[in-house]
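Budget justification aside, the reviewers requested a transparent look at the raw inputs and outputs of the sequence design task funded under Objective 1. We therefore reproduce one unedited record. The lines immediately below are the C-alpha cells for a 468-residue chain.
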C-alpha cells in the first residue's frame, strides 16, 4: 500500500514538474526578406504569438521563453537549427531544402510546415541591370557577368532563364556569387552587368534609382515561395505550440490584407526596406500571394529545388518532398481559426483590390488595368481604374504641391505589380495606356493595336492623353 502511494506521489510530482517546465520557442527570421513578414517581423512586433500559446492541459503551468533571431539569409538559420539553437526558421524553397538535407545529415530532421508568401509562376525573383545599361531583357546579357547569391532560389531562377535562352551557363555568361549587399554597390560602379536575386532586391534596387528590372521570375514560369520549417522532434513534442505559431501567422496575414499601408510602414521601420516596396508585395494585387497552403506547385518546387541543388553538387543523399512537407499542423491551425483549408488550397487569387476609383468614386470592377498612387501624407493608397487616369492625376497631385511616393501599375499581360515610373507603356489608338515590364512587349502591343510605345516620361506628356 505504501509502495503504491509512493509511486502515485512520484508520478504526480513528475507531472507537476513537466507542466511547470520552461519551454523555449526560438524562431529564426529573415526580416529584410519582406515577404516573410507574416511569419516573423509582424508576429514579433505585434506580440501575436503570446495570444495563441497554450496554457491548458499539459501546458497549464508552462512558462515560455520566446527567442527571436534575425538573419539576412537562410543558411545561418539552418546552421543554428542544426546546432540546436533554433526551433523554427523561415526561408525560401532552395535554402529550405538545404535545411532538410543538413538536419537529415545531423540525424535530427526538419519539416516544412507552411508557405508564407510565394508565386506559382515565379514572381519575387528577378534580374536587374544598372539604370543606364542598354540591356532591356535577358536576351541582351549573353557574354555578360551576372551575379547571384549561390544556392538561392534566385540562382535556380537564373539557371532556368539561361536554359530557356538555349545558352550554356558555363560559356555563354559569367555567373559569379554575390550577396545583395555587395551587388548593390557593384551595380552602381558597373563592376557587374546584371544581378539576380530574391525578394525584395529586384524591386528595391530599381526603387532606389540605380537599377532597372529586366526580368521577372514569372517569365521562367517556375514556382517559388518562402515558408517556415520546424525541427521534427520539437514539432512532435510540442504540436500545440507549432499550431499556435501558425495561428499567429494567419492573424498577421489578416492584418496585412486589412491595412497593407499601415503594416508596410511597420515593416519598413523594422527592416529599413522602404514601405513603397513593401506594399508591392503586401498590397492588393501584389507581386506574390500570401498563401499559406501547400499548393501542388509548391510541393513540386521543393522537389525541383533538391534536384537542382544536387545537380549543382550543393546537396547529396535523397529527399522526398511529400515526406519533408507536413501540412497537418497548418490544417489544425486553419480549423482552430474556423477556416477551410481545402477551400484555401484551391484559391490561387492575388489579394483582391476592393476600392473605389479615386477620381470618379465608382467601384473598380476589373483589375487588369488598375493603377495606384501613394501620396505622401495620405494613409491609404489611391486606386484608379486605368493607367491613363492615374498618370493624369500624378500631374494634378504635383501641381497641388503634394509628393507622389509611388506609382503602381499592373503589367497588361502577366498581371504582376510594377513600379509605374519604371514601366514601359503602350498607347493604343483609342488613347488607352497599358503598362509593361519589358520594352519589347510594350512595342509589340503598340504594334498590334495601332498605337505607340512610350516610356513613363512620355506617357505623362499631355499629347499621350489627347485621345482619351
Amino acid at each position: 500500500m505504501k509502495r503504491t502511494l509512493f509511486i502515485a506521489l512520484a508520478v504526480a510530482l513528475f507531472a507537476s514538474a513537466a507542466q511547470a517546465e520552461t519551454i523555449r520557442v526560438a524562431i529564426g527570421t529573415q526580416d529584410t526578406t519582406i515577404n516573410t513578414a507574416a511569419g516573423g517581423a509582424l508576429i514579433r512586433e505585434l506580440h501575436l504569438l503570446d495570444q495563441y500559446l497554450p496554457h491548458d492541459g499539459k501546458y497549464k503551468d508552462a512558462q515560455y521563453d520566446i527567442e527571436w533571431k534575425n538573419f539576412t539569409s537562410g543558411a545561418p538559420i539552418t546552421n543554428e537549427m542544426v546546432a540546436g539553437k533554433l526551433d523554427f526558421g523561415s526561408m525560401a524553397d532552395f535554402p529550405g531544402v538545404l535545411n532538410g538535407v543538413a538536419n537529415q545529415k545531423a540525424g535530427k530532421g526538419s519539416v516544412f510546415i507552411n508557405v508564407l508568401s510565394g508565386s506559382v509562376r515565379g514572381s519575387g525573383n528577378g534580374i536587374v541591370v544598372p539604370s543606364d545599361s542598354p540591356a532591356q531583357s535577358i536576351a541582351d546579357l549573353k557574354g555578360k557577368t551576372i551575379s547571384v547569391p549561390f544556392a538561392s532560389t534566385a540562382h535556380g531562377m537564373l539557371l532556368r532563364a539561361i536554359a530557356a535562352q538555349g545558352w550554356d551557363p558555363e560559356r555563354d555568361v559569367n555567373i559569379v556569387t554575390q550577396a545583395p549587399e555587395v551587388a548593390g554597390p557593384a551595380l552602381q560602379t558597373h563592376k557587374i552587368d546584371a544581378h539576380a536575386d530574391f525578394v525584395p532586391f529586384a524591386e528595391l534596387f530599381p526603387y532606389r534609382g540605380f537599377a532597372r528590372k529586366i526580368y521577372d521570375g514569372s517569365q521562367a514560369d517556375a514556382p517559388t515561395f518562402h515558408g517556415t520549417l520546424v525541427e521534427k522532434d520539437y514539432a512532435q513534442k510540442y504540436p500545440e505550440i507549432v499550431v499556435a505559431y501558425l495561428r499567429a501567422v494567419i492573424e498577421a496575414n489578416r492584418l496585412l490584407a486589412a491595412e497593407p499601408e499601415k503594416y508596410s510602414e511597420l515593416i519598413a521601420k523594422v527592416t529599413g526596406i522602404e514601405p513603397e516596396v513593401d506594399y508591392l508585395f503586401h498590397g492588393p494585387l501584389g507581386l506574390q500571394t500570401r498563401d499559406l497552403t501547400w499548393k501542388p506547385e509548391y510541393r513540386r518546387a521543393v522537389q525541383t529545388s533538391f534536384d537542382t541543388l544536387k545537380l549543382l553538387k550543393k546537396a547529396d543523399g535523397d529527399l522526398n518532398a511529400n515526406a519533408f512537407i507536413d501540412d497537418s499542423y497548418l490544417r489544425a491551425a486553419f480549423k482552430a481559426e474556423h477556416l477551410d483549408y481545402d477551400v484555401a488550397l484551391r484559391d490561387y487569387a492575388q489579394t483582391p483590390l476592393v476600392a473605389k476609383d479615386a477620381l470618379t468614386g465608382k467601384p473598380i470592377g476589373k483589375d487588369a488595368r488598375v493603377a495606384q498612387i501613394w501620396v505622401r501624407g495620405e494613409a491609404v493608397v489611391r486606386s484608379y481604374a486605368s493607367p491613363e487616369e492615374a498618370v493624369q492625376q500624378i500631374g494634378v497631385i504635383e501641381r497641388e504641391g503634394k509628393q507622389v511616393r509611388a506609382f503602381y501599375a499592373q503589367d497588361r499581360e502577366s498581371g504582376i505589380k510594377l513600379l509605374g515610373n519604371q514601366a514601359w507603356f503602350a498607347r493604343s489608338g483609342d488613347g488607352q495606356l497599358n503598362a509593361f515590364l519589358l520594352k519589347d512587349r510594350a512595342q509589340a502591343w503598340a504594334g498590334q493595336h495601332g498605337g505607340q510605345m512610350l516610356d513613363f516620361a512620355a506617357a505623362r506628356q499631355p499629347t499621350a492623353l489627347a485621345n482619351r
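The two ends are 96 Å apart (CA to CA). The chain has three domains: 2-118+224-346, 126-219, 371-465. Computational costs for records of this kind are itemized in the attached budget.
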